[in-house]
Amino acid sequence: MLSIFRQYTFDDSFEQVFISSKFLKEYQIALTFATDYDQNNLPTSGIFRVNWDTTKVTPESITHFKKQHPEVNIKVYISIGNRGTTFPFSPQNNKSWILNATKSLTNIIKNNKDYNLQVDGIDVLYENIEASPVDFVECIGQLIKNLKENGVIKEASISPSFALNNDFYFLLYRAYSNQIDWVDYQFQNEVVPVFAPNKLVELYDELVLEFYPRKKLFAGYSAENEDWATLSPIVFFLGGMNILKKRKGPGISIHYHNYYQQNSNNE
């Protein structure tokens, strides 16, 4: 069973994770987050800035990590958005948002030597959307398309959850399925708690049946203590292993708790 593992992190805690080529074919570092809000938390209409710890996540730390694990394909993603209600997706003008987002993320990924992290892709993880589904689909879809066509990124993923899946993320996927490589569904945001591994597997199968192809669908999880009431570590571990082994899911992801005790280092 060779799978993909994604770690959402704001720092270099990926260096502490055990990696074995016996189980993994790919390890994705998803940096949290790039947000289109300024240092006063005001919206910037698509001008993204970095919120991860740039003193710990450096070109040198990424290069060193890759050299330590030559047998596993290491990829770096920039996750745009945020968890919770802060920094919602809220463009004032679609055209200017797309233009600004394309330019600012290109600068972060390609043109800034401090952030030269050999980025492979972006992940879209907005848990709060203050826009219409049409605007969300247009802005995010065109941003991904622009970055790919300009050679800025090679891959893109979206990270839906229960409340936003039907009206936002699935519409985005349906319109831009050829541009979206992975779907990292966040199971910790289910309305009804998931108390049994077989229930997690059942929910995963329903997503495959109704929304996303199995070959692209990750099972996502949060190790935040406040999320355990919805999905505990043991339930996710047992259910996730079933998804990987028996359901042939491509991978899983985990949010580690250190990020959410940290304010932006750029504030």
Automatic annotation (TrEMBL):
One GO term of the biological process aspect: carbohydrate metabolic process
Residues covered by the GH18 domain: 1-267
InterPro entries: Chitinase-like, GH, Glyco_hydro18_cat
Top-level lineage group: Eukaryota
Record protein name field: GH18 domain-containing protein
Organism: Medicago truncatula (Barrel medic)
Lineage per the UniProt record: Eukaryota, Viridiplantae, Streptophyta, Embryophyta, Tracheophyta
